[in-house]
Amino acid sequence: MPDAPFAALFDMDGVIVDNTDFHINAWLQFAQHKGIPLTRDQYIDHINGRVSADAMAYVFQRPIEPGELIVLTEEKEAIYRELYRPHLQPAPGLITLLEALKARNVPTAVGTSAPMSNVHFTLDGLLLRPYFDTVVDASLVKHGKPHPEIYLKAAEKVGVEPARCVVFEDAFAGIQAGLRAGMAVIAVATTLTRNELAGSGASLIVDDFIGLTVDAIREVVNKTVH
Ligand SMILES: O=P(O)(O)OC[C@H]1O[C@@H](O)[C@H](O)[C@@H](O)[C@@H]1O
Known about the structure:
Blueprint: E1 7-10, H1 20-33, H2 40-46, H3 52-60, H4 66-84, H5 94-103, E2 108-111, H6 116-124, E3 134-136, H7 149-158, E4 165-169, H8 172-180, E5 184-188, H9 194-197, E6 204-206, H10 214-223
Parallel strand pairs: 1-2, 1-4, 2-3, 4-5, 5-6
6-O-phosphono-beta-D-glucopyranose (BG6) binds at residues 11-14, 23, 27, 47-49, 112-114, 118, 171, 174.
EC number: 5.4.2.6
Organism: Spirosoma endbachense
InterPro entries: B-phosphoglucomutase_hydrolase, Beta-PGM-like, HAD-like_sf, HAD-SF_hydro_IA, HAD_sf, PGP-like_dom2
């Protein structure tokens, strides 16, 4: 019997690249320029993995109208890109895994809360675009993570039912989004520790992609009870 098909959906920040410290420093610098106090813990609880509209509304404690949101987002992301650019590199083992997925014809997608400018910076900066069949970024959804829309849209675009998708995530908001989409979740312990991720609902926790095989991922999808 042929292997049942599945799709692999990758979060970007904290998963494709291990860049959370750079996002944290960028947010802290940005908030400081605006005279707003912000801590690392507040970042983890309210900003990590969320779309800019939600993150900015939290930082400024008010809804941000669309024009202002574009300006503020690019202000923050320009700081982030300057900080991270000299360190830009794919997560350990990622390219080997992406090549293995491609060789086995497993559909792949990126599902990220990031704006298109950061998707370009990361995926094109690292020449990763050809490894993914589709990308869903913040501009394509109404609701950011933890709402499941980003991952549901990614599943639809690759043509695989949610129950046959696995999501790679590092953030609580993203793990929730994957679970609420009815998908299996593999947590990557970059931003949070294995202990912090233990009760998150993820089926498997990995440190990075080294040694992770297509068959092991398929097993996670097969075994996840929805
Ligand atoms: O790629 P992800 O994890 O969905 O999230 C992207 C967002 O992740 C947040 O942690 C960053 O602070 C944002 O600036 C970024 O846009």
